[in-house]
Design a protein that fits this description.
Length: 281
């Protein structure tokens, strides 16, 4: 039953993500002739070169890539990806028949909102344990036979798409708008996958870590962990207080630390993702 519920959740995420991805392409990028990264960008370019519909171009690009790279991915992932590509193509095909999209003359608006829609859509698709297209598989194949990492391969493919945009449209501005669209999408995807965590991870090296920890617990209501260590050169014992606080609590935390030890070493880092809550209560 758990497996069925999990798969239904994946299907829902993929369907919603495909709808948003298709909306971003159809409503914003396609009318402005702006490309994006991955196979959606390749499909837009193919559409303008051959006049083949974007939905058909997506299928023509993706299905062979998925079949070619089947040994690099699991059958379940391949099936979900085919479903994702099919749904995206379907939505791209039916949207113009369902809605009359207003013409947006501002390129910045088209780029930003197109990038946001595509970013959210791809983020949902990835959360649904699928891929939005075949460039991920191309990257896996390249990394399997070369020393190039998948992320680097995807970046190279996106650069090729941007260069193709500049060459085909003979318009450098469109290529730059496309680059901005890819950047916006990437940032949104990262936000979707990492969540909206606004916590900070703080490491405090101090001789008064016990007192600081007690004060943090009393004033901020946060718990933490004291780690034992030693100096790298002198081998003297050290205590490191590890605590997670909210972004708005950082200044209060600094004040607490300064009250007890002005010489304390404090390192503050972003917590991009967190699981569990034992340190936050």
């Amino acid at each position: 039953m758990k497996i069925v519920a999990s798969e239904l959740k994946n299907i829902l995420l993929i369907t919603l993500g495909s709808a948003l991805l298709a909306f971003g392409v159809t409503a914003f990028l396609l009318p402005a002739q702006i490309a994006t990264g991955g196979t959606p960008g390749m499909s837009i370019i193919i559409h303008y070169v051959t006049n083949v519909g974007v939905s058909l171009a997506m299928l023509m690009v993706n299905i062979p890539l998925i079949i070619a790279g089947i040994k690099f991915i699991t059958p379940a992932f391949a099936a979900r990806t085919i479903f994702s590509v099919s749904m995206t193509s379907l939505f791209i095909e039916i949207y113009p028949n369902l809605f009359i999209f207003p013409t947006i003359s501002d390129m910045l608006l088209s780029t930003l909102y197109g990038g946001i829609c595509i970013g959210v859509g791809v983020g949902f698709i990835l959360k649904g344990q699928a891929s939005a297209g075949g460039t991920t598989i191309i990257a896996k194949i390249i990394s399997n036979y070369t020393s190039i990492k998948p992320a680097q391969a995807i970046l190279v493919l996106d650069v090729i798409i941007i260069c193709a945009t500049a060459f085909i449209y003979k318009d450098m501005e469109l290529a730059l708008w496309s680059l901005m669209s890819i950047y916006v999408s990437a940032k949104v995807i990262d936000k979707i996958l990492s969540g909206s965590v606004s916590e900070k991870v703080v490491h405090i090296v101090s001789k008064h870590s016990q007192e600081i920890g007690v004060k943090i617990s009393e004033d901020l209501g946060r718990k933490g962990t004291i780690l034992s260590g030693h100096s790298l050169t002198l081998q003297t014992p050290k205590e490191v207080l590890f605590v997670v606080v909210g972004s708005r609590e950082i200044e209060k935390l600094k004040a607490i630390i300064n009250q007890h030890d002005e010489q304390a070493l404090v390192i503050v880092m972003e917590a991009s993702e967190m699981m569990g809550s034992s340190l936050l209560t």
